[in-house]
Amino acid sequence: MAYERLLSPMKVGAVDLPNRVFMAPLTRARCPDQVPGKMQQTYYAQRAGAGMIISEATNISESARGYVYTPGIFTDAQEAGWKDVLEAVHDAGGRMCCQLWHVGRVGHEMVHPDGRKPVAPSALKAEGAQSYVEFEDGSSGLHDTATPRALETKEIPGVVDEYRQAAIRAKRAGFDMVEVHAANAYLLQQFMATGSNQRTDAYGGNLENRARLTLEVVDAVIEVMGADRVGIRLSPFIEIFGLSDDEPKTMAFYMAEQLNERGLAYVHVAEPDWAGGDVSLNDDFRAAMRERFTAGALLFNGHYTADKTEALIANGLGDGASFGRPYIANPDLVERFRQNAELNEPDPSTFYGGDEKGYTDYPTLAEQNG
């Protein structure tokens, strides 16, 4: 069999997986009312052959939003919508994880119905970042992010509770796991990074303080799901949305050790090669992360191919990888890997927004071969 290691079963926390091909979280902006519907049921069920589907980033509250047309998991309607998606995925034999998302400063008042400012560790604008908004005439498009307001210390327990409540809803909806989104320059990484966190309270300053909110969120989600059904996404060295960090490696290693103590099901590392950033994320770094995190699976995401992932596993540097754009265009990606078949090319013009075109209409091998 081609890719014997990549296509071999594994256990991630409490969940048995048939292979090590993860579907990466992919924002597609096709939920105009923030509620997943029939298109999402079809889209995710088509990709149920993945070892684990990680959902598109899912807003934990109204104030967590930075992009219109993205789904949430903070209302009854959203929970019910996800429940229908999960039923479709499970009926197709799949497993699915909910990625919990708060954009922090990567937002704008136009995304919030009451015109509230986005929140962040400090009142520092995400330079060069854009939010996807709906304008007064009903059209939508990109708009420079607003200058956020700094969260007050007394507000932070409320943010942690938003993650807790979102995890409760995810569990009720039927998600097999939950992933804490602490990557890609969004709220939790904004707290962890030196450039975006200028706080002088217990959530700023030294490394332990800057990591405090992320770990409090992880602990809250563990209380709901159990550590064996919780993962986290990290993105050390990434340089997007104006993020800068003087201690990315030190923070990554500290987090790996802390998450290992908690027995987390997996750590999911997004590499900076897709978005620019430091090239320090090399095999030495991967080996150091593997040494520090042994409690669960270590996954990587970036420009991974089946060959590259097979080598990663063979070299003991990781347990699997998540695939983003290949999964947009190849709903049967695992089968294509199994047959070493050619992959469909994705159409970038249909990545965000729209309808079924470029979403549920990519053909499988079986359909192509008649």
Q: How is this structure best described in words?
A:
By secondary structure, the chain is α/β, with parallel strands linked by helices. 32% of the residues lie in helices and 16% in strands. The protein has helices spanning 38-46, 76-91, 156-173, 187-192, 207-225, 248-261, 283-292, 306-314, 325-329, 333-339, 365-368, and strands spanning 10-12, 15-17, 21-23, 52-54, 58-59, 96-101, 119-120, 130-134, 140-144, 149-150, 177-182, 230-234, 266-270, 297-301, 320-323. The strands form 4 sheets. Strands 3-4-6-11-12-13-14-15 form an 8-stranded parallel beta barrel, surrounded by 5 helices. Strand 12, helix 6 and strand 13 (266-270) form a beta-alpha-beta unit. Helix 6 runs parallel beside helix 7 (283-292). The longest helix has 19 residues, at 207-225. The chain is globular, with a radius of gyration of 19 Å. The two termini are 24 Å apart.
